[in-house]
Design a protein that fits this description.
11 strands, 2 domains, single chain, OB fold (Dihydrolipoamide Acetyltransferase, E2P), CheW, five-stranded mixed β-sheet, three-stranded antiparallel β-sheet, alpha+beta, CheW-lke_dom, CheW-like_dom_sf
């Protein structure tokens, strides 16, 4: 099955689905008798069944394409998913499997008698109080490094999936989640000013940046120690 016929199949499947939500639902004239009970079409079993049917068709088409062109997989480059973010003037990368989500900056409430310098306090994450840790302290970064005028300051919070539960880590900016080829990561090394960098697998040149690739196991271990 080629790409054109696959797209045609999906288009045909979409046409056969009764999109009642566009006619009598929240996107239509709202005359559906089920709407008052469900509030929104996405809560209705009809909407869910239609979505499942269409997604099943996408999965079927993908399976067909994978079966038809297995040789393409042989030439695919192995990649690793990393979230890239900035602390001060330094760009860092962490495996996304350690990441629950990226959230807007929230107020951090300090705690009396804190036992760790890295523990900044707690933050409210969807109604739950979550410990907030400083990467500046954990990684031994220079807190006096200022941001240049060319750098954006868009504070975010990384919610990290630590062994004992989620932990919030404030950062200055999140570039995004990127799939970086293993062959590029294999060039990462520690030398010069980064020779003694802790919790670090290596430093690599990525795009126009020097990117410090963090060792997630060592970092998560340090997070656990900071909370006990």
């Amino acid at each position: 099955m080629n790409g054109l016929s696959a797209q045609s199949l999906i288009h045909t499947e979409a046409q056969t689905i009764d999109d009642c939500w566009n006619r009598i639902g929240v996107y239509g004239d709202k005359s559906c008798p089920l709407l008052p009970a469900h509030i929104h079409c996405r809560n209705c079993s009809v909407y869910a069944a239609a979505a499942t049917r269409l997604l099943d068709r996408y999965a079927f088409v993908q399976d067909e394409q994978d079966f038809a062109a297995p040789q393409d997989l042989e030439h695919a480059h192995a990649t690793r998913s990393l979230v890239v973010f900035r602390m001060g003037g330094e760009w860092l990368a962490l495996a996304t499997r350690c990441l629950d989500e990226v959230a807007p900056l929230q107020s951090i409430h300090s705690l009396p008698h804190q036992r760790s310098r890295a523990l900044m306090g707690v933050a409210n994450v969807r109604g739950a109080l979550v410990p907030c840790l400083s990467l500046v302290e954990l990684l031994g970064l220079d807190p006096t490094v200022s941001v240049t005028p060319a750098q954006r300051v868009m504070p975010r919070m990384l919610i990290v999936a630590a062994p004992g539960g989620p932990v919030v880590v404030p950062v200055d900016e999140v570039d995004g989640i990127h799939n970086i080829e293993e062959r590029v990561l294999n060039t990462a090394s520690l030398s010069g000013e980064h020779a003694s960098a802790i919790f670090t697998r290596g430093v690599l040149h990525w795009k126009t940046r020097s990117l410090r690739w963090l060792d997630e196991e060592q970092l998560l271990g340090a997070i656990t120690r900071s909370l006990t």
